[in-house]
Amino acid sequence: MSKTEKQAPDRTAATARPDNGGGTAATGVSRRRLLGTAGAAGATGLVLGAGGGAAGYAATRPEEPAALTTIGATEAMFHGKHQPGITTPLQARGHLVAFDLVAGAGRKEAAALLRRWSAVAKELMAGRAAAGGADGPGHDTGIALDAGPSSLTVTFGFGRTFFARTGLADRLPAALDPLPVFSADALDARRSGGDLWAQIGADDALVAFHALRALQKEAAGTARVRWQMNGFNRTPGATARPMTTRNLMGQIDGTGNPKPTDEDFDRRVFVLASPGKPQEWMEGGSYAVVRRIRMLLDDWEKLPVEHQERVIGRRKADGAPLSGGTETTEMDLDKAGPDGRPVIPGNAHARISSPEKNGGAAMLRRPFSYHDGIAEDGAPDAGLLFICWQADPFRGFVPVQRKLDRGDALSPFLRHEASAVFAVPGGAAAGEYVGQRLLES
Amino acid sequence: MSKTEKQAPDRTAATARPDNGGGTAATGVSRRRLLGTAGAAGATGLVLGAGGGAAGYAATRPEEPAALTTIGATEAMFHGKHQPGITTPLQARGHLVAFDLVAGAGRKEAAALLRRWSAVAKELMAGRAAAGGADGPGHDTGIALDAGPSSLTVTFGFGRTFFARTGLADRLPAALDPLPVFSADALDARRSGGDLWAQIGADDALVAFHALRALQKEAAGTARVRWQMNGFNRTPGATARPMTTRNLMGQIDGTGNPKPTDEDFDRRVFVLASPGKPQEWMEGGSYAVVRRIRMLLDDWEKLPVEHQERVIGRRKADGAPLSGGTETTEMDLDKAGPDGRPVIPGNAHARISSPEKNGGAAMLRRPFSYHDGIAEDGAPDAGLLFICWQADPFRGFVPVQRKLDRGDALSPFLRHEASAVFAVPGGAAAGEYVGQRLLES
Ligand code: HEM
Ligand code: HEM
């Protein structure tokens, strides 16, 4: 099967957005336009086709029109100033996978791997088969056959240990210094760290798994999986709320995030390296702090909702600050209630973590929820794959987590189980691969 | 927050389908109609809104119209002749959870639990909060707040061990006799069996998790989780293929399933018990065989595609039988190639499992894929949560698995890791709870 055959018949590539980010607010996602009339008719039929299932196939969707919806057709761009998967809208499914270089693999092998990975990521993000094609040797697994790109993003990063192993110790950024130990850490070293990291996101679970297998295959002989985690968010269209997702505690999550329209968004989230400096290769990149944070849901769910709301400082139903307004209203941290005490409690999570209380420290949180069934202790093995993005973890994650760790109201319901930090270089320009400026300079 | 507030503003309940199944082909799913013009405009905007992400929020979907799409708005009916989740179209996310009654819990406690579970399932499937409401004591976790029903189904079943524990040994159906031991079984007893079973499916992962937590909460004090598994299928709209899904081997899966339009569909899949017989309570019910089947993907993916196709007897790209045609063309098991040998090999999985070669034995396969990361041996802990539905497992699953186990071409790439069989009674009539005819007769 050739690559072109894999294109769904009624998609045409429209308004591809070659730049992941640029100046301000672009999310680097383009929605492939369905063919005019047919597309519109299909969409209307899809939404208005009530009374479904009166006839047809068992365990199938008999009435779905033969067209991708937005979910399948949305395509994120591989090339750009920034890598995809940072400002890209949250996807329904995510995989995090860390690799360690095998003995004997050094800079040369790593460069070749990043070149292969970049080539694969670019093909898959466009909804095509992995390099090697659908058959023949090195063939594609076929798991994503006849699915659209489904907002697939693949994002690559380098861990602290990568640099010494590849003879690049002089390029190791100070931003990859080990994180301080926090009092509430219960970290599992086998699920922490890693030389290399890939974050995969897509709105279809099979498209995401397909990408994971393709990366693993390319890594064979050069790097082996150190740890791997699965996550999820809402399926687009499952909720009418346009902006933020909920986490497994039931809270609206993401409200306080810096917005790409903020004047200082780029400066906070992305590295703006000065040319000629040893970290020039990180220009346009960002640092990802990854924490697997277990939620102690059995305890949490016992709290009355009003108590849960005081723990965060926001209302559960709509995310509005306890100081009033709607989700987008700014928190009024000074507002006092009739009893003279602040309506957003002194230990509320959203107060303690706010830039206002942290000398402006901010990060872009872009998490996935995780749920791996029942843990050995009988509690749900579920929580947040907390991923935050910033120009410097020591001016983003670290000061904030230091304060939270010292005792915000949420901490008793959390357990940090794994931790890693990765340097995620800028996006590859056309013809380039991710990390080339590090590996070939 | 009251229950009505939780309804999305532009949904109206349309063409509710009160009967899950009835005579022939209904799938028991109704799609809530969006309000005429507004809905249509929203849908068109959604699909045609190309160039997405030019402005707006980081890590959000700025342009999504403030309306549920079909994914969120689709609602499966709780009441009906059959339980939902059997002929319901495959959902993107699934949870299987088995419970054992705690010491001291008997028939009375089990009846109360099934009554509570049924009440919760009905509310959640309609997109409302769990009993107890969104706040106050016993409040809803809020994880599904502002999401639509998202095709949620909850299906309940009884395992063999349930009957003696509840003093109902005289009602134990022969269909729940232990399965024979198959030569390739590598079953983990801790993830097999169970007194009670719930299957949850939804097109949104948070909606599914919400339902799982709600069931667990109702079970507290009466039953404890024995095992729990997570699965997934394609997100609707991610592919243009209307009928079948793919599995993690990349194959189109579900083609050979009996169709609700087949004359003998009901007789094969559902129990048509004679009144007055001890198993009258199973009228309209079905038996679910659940097998967690690991795929040995590292081995499988090494096979050339033509070899993979001979293992199944169908083409990978489009699911057509190797004897020719398209996916829906019947297999021609007698057709020989130029070399005189059958083009669908003698040990091909689809040949060996076909009703034609099994005295008509047939089952409705309705699986979820699973992927729990990397197993201890470094291989992907991934495969199929194989669930098949039939009026009698000894005339459906058992004879077919006996033959497959004796050596079809697929078996070397599979490992059956867990097994369970559940009696899934018919759907609850209005005012009734699932299992009432067993527990109160
Ligand atoms: C499972 C763990 C966590 C949960 C469930 C959680 C939940 C929340 C919620 C519900 C909010 C309010 C809504 C919003 O602005 O998104 C919030 C805000 C925030 N959280 Fe967390 N959080 C967690 C961990 C963390 C960690 C580890 C950090 C950083 C060290 C962090 C930093 C922030 C920041 C910066 C805000 C925004 C505050 C503002 O409004 O300016 N959170 N979190
Ligand atoms: C991970 C394990 C399995 C995989 C990957 C698998 C895959 C497939 C595929 C690709 C097909 C052809 C397309 C289709 O008709 O759906 C098929 C057909 C079928 N399989 Fe399986 N299968 C598995 C296990 C089983 C088991 C355990 C049984 C029953 C004991 C079974 C029974 C059937 C039946 C009845 C058919 C339809 C044959 C016909 O066309 O009439 N399969 N399977």
Automatic annotation (TrEMBL), chains A, B:
UniProt enzyme class: oxidoreductase
Protein name stated in the entry: Deferrochelatase
Job of this protein: Involved in the recovery of exogenous heme iron. Extracts iron from heme while preserving the protoporphyrin ring intact.
Residues spanning the membrane: none
Necessary cofactors: heme b
Keyword terms, alphabetized: Heme, Iron, Lyase, Metal-binding, Oxidoreductase, Peroxidase, Signal
Dyp-type peroxidase N-terminal domain mapped to chain residues: 83-233
Database matches in InterPro entries: Dimeric_a/b-barrel, Dyp_perox_C, Dyp_perox_N, Dyp_peroxidase, EfeB/EfeN, TAT_signal
Region span, Disordered: 1-30, 316-337
Gene Ontology molecular functions: ferrochelatase activity; heme binding; metal ion binding; peroxidase activity
Catalytic activity: heme b + 2 H(+) = protoporphyrin IX + Fe(2+)
UniProt entry tagged with the keyword Metal-binding: yes
Taxon lineage: Bacteria, Bacillati, Actinomycetota, Actinomycetes, Kitasatosporales
Record text on cofactor binding: Binds 1 heme b (iron(II)-protoporphyrin IX) group non-covalently per subunit.
GO biological process, one term: iron import into cell
One protein family per Pfam: Dyp_perox_N
Organism: Streptomyces violaceoruber
Location of this chain's protein in the cell: Cell envelope
Segments forming domain Dyp-type peroxidase C-terminal: 244-428
Stated family: Belongs to the DyP-type peroxidase family.
GO CC aspect terms: cell envelope; cytosol
UniProt key word Magnesium: no
EC code: 1.11.1.-
